[in-house]
């Protein structure tokens, strides 16, 4: 006779938690224990795990590693604009184009940060 022979549930999974994870899980379980259906941890965990919907969140890239590279690009563009202004070797249109490029770089980085923040909010809402 084996363990699962007379059971309605034949699949068993064992979980391990860090101290912090267990603290969160235990607090969630205790908050639900006012309902007699969740008096036992296994009953609550089975329901929580089988009823939860986990939605993957995709972020194109984390902007933090790009910050240094973007800063260097911005510094280079500013130096080019400053040099062009002092040497008068570049037209006003070219300076304007460089300034527009810098604004575009800033806009792209801002969009990456906004996307990352939105993904974090979506992930937190799905908990």
Write the layout of secondary structure elements.
Elements: H1 19-32, H2 41-51, H3 67-87, H4 92-125
Description:
The chain is mainly alpha-helical. It is built from 4 helices and no strands. Helix 3 (67-87) runs antiparallel to helix 4 (92-125). It is rod-shaped, with a radius of gyration of 28 Å. The mean pLDDT is 80.
H-E order? HHHH
What's the main sheet like?
none
* Terminal-residue CA separation: 40 Å
How many β-strand runs?
0
Strand content: under 5%
Note the total helix count.
4
Helical percentage: 55-70%
Shape: rod-shaped
The average pLDDT is: 80
Low-pLDDT segments, ≥5 res: none
Radius of gyration: 28 Å
Q: How would you describe the oligomerization state of the chains in this entry?
A: single chain
How does the helix and strand content classify structurally? mainly alpha
Which features would summarize this protein structure in a list?
4 helices, mainly alpha, single chain
Concise summary:
The protein is mostly helical and 127 residues long. 63% of the residues lie in helices and 0% in strands. The model has no long low-confidence stretch (mean pLDDT 80).
């Amino acid at each position: 006779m084996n363990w699962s022979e007379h059971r309605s549930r034949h699949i068993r999974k064992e979980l391990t938690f860090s101290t912090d994870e267990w603290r969160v899980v235990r607090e969630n379980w205790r908050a639900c224990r006012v309902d007699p259906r969740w008096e036992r941890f296994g009953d609550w965990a089975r329901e929580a795990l089988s009823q939860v919907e986990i939605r993957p969140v995709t972020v194109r890239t984390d902007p933090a590693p790009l910050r240094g590279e973007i800063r260097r690009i911005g510094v280079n563009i500013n130096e080019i604009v400053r040099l062009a202004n002092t040497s008068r070797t570049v037209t006003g249109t070219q300076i304007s184009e460089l300034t527009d490029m810098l604004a575009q770089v800033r806009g792209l980085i801002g969009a990456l940060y906004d996307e990352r923040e939105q993904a974090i909010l979506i992930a937190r809402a799905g908990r």
